[in-house]
Q: What sequence folds into this?
């Protein structure tokens, strides 16, 4: 093989190996919100911080979030641990049943009066709400304390995230997913 042939062969191999990386670019949340949420929501909505009634009496709080989609049904799972209490909450949300303004982000997160926090503290809370006055979200709570799982319906789900730009993008992607699901009905 000539030196030019080897050069062309080497360049072809490099491009052939690099092509899969190009194909794995991050999806656009407005074009394919489900793909974007599947790839990004879990990492964005995982937090670990300390919380308590005083700086001397704090417990570790961890929340990990995962999301899956089955068509227009979103299954959101949150595993939380605070101190010695652990649980998994599963929410089944029919996106087409939600209003297009059902998702919002607010600065900060809920703490009881007088409590304090430190660490990788969430900066924003995202709320996914069923239509006003309805408990339209199927939920399941599975505590890890030996008690039986409990099924219930709720009117809202909250996610804690660490950055404003991520919160805004999640709200836009969820809103777009709701719009697409409402169009399919």
A:
């Amino acid at each position: 093989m000539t030196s030019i042939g080897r050069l062309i062969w080497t360049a072809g191999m490099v491009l052939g190996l690099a092509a899969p990386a190009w194909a794995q670019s991050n999806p656009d949340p407005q074009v394919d919100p489900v793909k974007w949420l599947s790839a990004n929501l879990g990492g964005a909505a995982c937090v670990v911080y300390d919380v308590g009634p005083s700086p001397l009496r704090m417990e570790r709080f961890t929340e990990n979030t995962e999301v899956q989609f089955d068509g227009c049904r979103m299954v959101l799972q949150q595993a939380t641990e605070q101190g010695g209490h652990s649980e998994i909450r599963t929410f089944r949300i029919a996106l087409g049943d939600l209003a297009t303004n059902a998702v919002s982000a607010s600065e900060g997160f809920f703490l009881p009066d007088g409590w304090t926090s430190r660490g990788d503290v969430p900066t924003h809370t995202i709320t996914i709400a069923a239509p006003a006055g309805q408990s339209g979200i199927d939920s399941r709570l599975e505590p890890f304390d030996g008690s039986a799982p409990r099924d219930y319906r709720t009117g809202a789900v909250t996610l804690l995230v660490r950055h404003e730009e991520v919160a805004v993008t999640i709200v836009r992607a969820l809103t777009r997913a709701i719009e697409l699901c409402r169009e399919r009905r």
In short: The first helix runs from residue 3 to 23. Helices lie at 3-23, 33-44, 164-184.
